[in-house]
Amino acid sequence: MSKNYHHGDLRHALIEKTLELVQADQVHLVGFRELARQLAVSRSAPYRHFPNVEALLAEVARQGFAAFVDVLEPVATVKEYAPEERFLELGVTYVQFALEHSAHYRLMFDCAYFKQEDFPEVQGLAARAFELLKRTSSACMDKSASDRDKVELATVAWAFVHGLSKLFIDGQLPKIKNQKRFIRSSCQRFVKLAQCANE
Amino acid sequence: MSKNYHHGDLRHALIEKTLELVQADQVHLVGFRELARQLAVSRSAPYRHFPNVEALLAEVARQGFAAFVDVLEPVATVKEYAPEERFLELGVTYVQFALEHSAHYRLMFDCAYFKQEDFPEVQGLAARAFELLKRTSSACMDKSASDRDKVELATVAWAFVHGLSKLFIDGQLPKIKNQKRFIRSSCQRFVKLAQCANE
DNA sequence: TGTACATCAGTGAACGCGCGTTCACTGATGTAC
DNA sequence: TGTACATCAGTGAACGCGCGTTCACTGATGTAC
Predict the structure, then answer these.
(1) Using the beta-carbon criterion (under 8 Å), do A112 and B186 form an inter-chain contact?
(2) Fold exhibited by the domain B60-198
(3) Looking at the partner chain, which of B151, B174, B197 has a beta carbon nearest the beta carbon of A174?
(4) Which residue in chain A has the smallest CA separation from B193?
């Protein structure tokens, strides 16, 4: 494989470079010209792999969601856990994924980058993630709980983990010493909420 | 005041138009040229009022934070309320402000628009808002609670209201029938959490 | 094993566009006398 | 009350820039015979 002409795996390189720029708070630089420049490739080369920038961003988000579901699903299905334990671990896993893959997380949930409705595969994966959350939180409720209540609890839980992730990622929190410990303990507080909801 | 030459209050008009575009999910259109076009004014007119677009966005955010603090502060200082009541009302007020002023809220908390560290006045107002939240949530805790615990509870509360606001604003929630009622009831659930934290 | 050919991935020039910003200018407004 | 002048807010032409996108092209790779 020649080093000068055929890049080898430009498609993959475009995706990686995009993540790198997002991570470095430089989304405004994500564009075919700039990417081509940074990858030392001609301006028009990216068009071999994506019809336009939006499609590239959507593909990155899709991969992010796929990885997200892959990480959450096993946690949501551990049979040995009690419902509250599963709920807790799912929350912790959610926030940790967001922090470890912050560039992905940003692209996944910031509607400014691409129109989710134009990419049904992305929507499908996002819906699966929410379903996992709903199923796991619902398992902590009384069997008599209405579907409306279940959706509400899932939404409240989602708001919490999403908000926490966003504040961390955007650097808006006052410094916290032991981040992992903080995430776990705040999620623990949160699970109690589900128990209160039954009362 | 001539209608054709002197605009009258271009500064104000620029701010309003910016909010209008953000509200309509068209932040990408916010720029001096486009604003000038929409306000039927020459390209260079905006420079009479702001040195650059970032300064305009920061000013809009500053006004947003000022209004935010103005709305939260009275709620946080109602003496007739019990601590838990104040905490609850503050949360409800927070989310309602975010939804009623969603364009402002976006500019206030999305770090992509301008560098907050370059605008100390904005930072100061943001810090005041967090202080209000911290003071109000702390009042619900045992007197023996450490400052660390107080910051933690405030952060958890912030994560929740911020996450809920963001999900609503970005249209990522499944449809909810009675939005106001939902906000109140989920904040109520949340306040119980503060009580649990004392146990 | 060698050659001919199809295919694929990247090139580089070119088009048109919108942006930010500067600058000498001018019309409108307010103020001093 | 009227005039002269300073000041302010907007004009419009111009500069340079980076972007997305198209298009005819060519070098590299793989495959069939």
Answers:
(1) no
(2) Tetracycline Repressor; domain 2 (1.10.357)
(3) B151
(4) A193
A to B CB pairs, distance under 8 Å: 100
Whether A173 shows a pLDDT value over 80: the answer reads yes
Q: Give me the residue spans of the domains in chain B.
A: 1-50, 60-198
- Whether residues A189 and B193 touch (CB distance < 8 A) is answered with yes
Using one digit for the tens of pLDDT, what is the confidence trace for B105-148?
A: 999 999 999 999 999 999 999 999 999 999 999 999 999 999 98
Query: What angle (nearest 5°) sits at the alpha carbon of residue B129, between those of residues B124 and B135?
Result: 120
pLDDT of residue A197: 62
Contacts of residue A138, Cβ cutoff 8 Å, sequence gap at least 6: A145, A150, A153, A154
pLDDT value for B154: 94
Q: What residue spans of chain A are helical by DSSP H? A: 10-23, 32-38, 53-76, 83-100, 102-109, 120-138, 147-169, 179-198
Report d(CA A109, CA B167) in Å as an integer.
9
> What Å value separates CA A65 and C1' D22?
33
Distance CA B44, CA B32 (A): 8
Mean of the pLDDT values across residues A43-57? Answer: 97
Q: Tell me the CA end-to-end span of chain B in Å, nearest whole number.
A: 66
